[in-house]
């Protein structure tokens, strides 16, 4: 399938999930994340979920990272440049939704891309080769292209894998893992 078709398919599937289902599936995903071989690192980039898009709730993963005393990094998106800036999440970090309902830090301690050890990535769908489909703006591909090569890239999905995404571009960055409520895919 092509990305445009996959975006529509997974947006529709998400719309049919109840808030209770989203919460249960998100908890299952967080429990799967605990099984990943990623816990010796320091800096973990986590997206804050867009509730209106019915994304995987990252609250449980946030609690795991906090409990393990990890440095948690969150982003702010600049829709004019297509780039994200990253900030350390602290007790003093103020979060505000932007006009696209993305929860973002108002300000804070800036963290550079080369500090990221592990990145949790929002997505709509993914395939057996580790290719992913996002919302199509390229924010994460630009971000990941500027991280160190050994940075671990983990997608989070309510749904299982597609066989193939047919319109993959050279600039698309593949996942190392994708975690669903039932499965950990390794690429």
TrEMBL record:
Coiled-coil segments on the chain, per record: none
First-level EC class: ligase
Keyword Ribosomal protein among UniProt keywords: no
Protein EC: 6.3.3.2
SUPFAM superfamilies in UniProt: NagB/RpiA/CoA transferase-like (SSF100950)
Catalytic activity: (6S)-5-formyl-5,6,7,8-tetrahydrofolate + ATP = (6R)-5,10-methenyltetrahydrofolate + ADP + phosphate
Requisite cofactors: Mg(2+)
Domain of life: Bacteria
A Pfam family per the record: 5-FTHF_cyc-lig
InterPro entries reported in the protein's UniProt record: FTHF_cligase, FTHF_cligase-like_sf, NagB/RpiA_transferase-like
Molecular function GO labels: 5-formyltetrahydrofolate cyclo-ligase activity
Keywords of this entry: ATP-binding, Ligase, Magnesium, Metal-binding, Nucleotide-binding
NCBIfam families associated with the record: MTHFS_bact
Family to which this protein belongs: Belongs to the 5-formyltetrahydrofolate cyclo-ligase family.
Family matches, as PANTHER family: ATPASE INHIBITOR/5-FORMYLTETRAHYDROFOLATE CYCLO-LIGASE, CHROMOSOME UNDETERMINED SCAFFOLD_24, WHOLE GENOME SHOTGUN SEQUENCE
Protein name per Swiss-Prot or TrEMBL: 5-formyltetrahydrofolate cyclo-ligase
Species for this entry: Flavivirga spongiicola
High-level lineage: Bacteria, Pseudomonadati, Bacteroidota, Flavobacteriia, Flavobacteriales
